[in-house]
Amino acid sequence: MRLELEPAWAQPIVESPQIVTQHFHTSIDTKSLELQKRIFALEEEVKRLSPKKATKYERYQDA
Is 25 a residue whose pLDDT tops 60? Predict the structure, then answer.
């Protein structure tokens, strides 16, 4: 039985935990920013469609 080694380029790349963690947080930050933009757009749409009525969120802010 002969053991064959894979070439270096076929080996999986092992990243340091710091890089993996940094990528994870960057990914979350990006998704969070996208969600904030969508929420803002939806709030603007609500204001546009019902200009005379304050949204529940705005009523709580005024109190």
Answer: yes
Q: What angle do CA 33, 37, 39 make, to 5 degrees?
A: 115
Whole-number Å distance between alpha carbons of 38 and 17? 32
pLDDT greater than 60 at residue 48: yes
- Residue 59: burial class (beta carbons within 10 Å; 0-12, 13-18, 19+): exposed
Distances (CA, A) of 18 to 27, 41, 45, 55: 14, 35, 41, 43
pLDDT at 58: 61
Determine the average pLDDT of the residues in 1-8. Answer: 60
What the block records as the tokens of 43 is 């709030």
Q: How many CB atoms lie within 10 A of CB 40?
A: 10
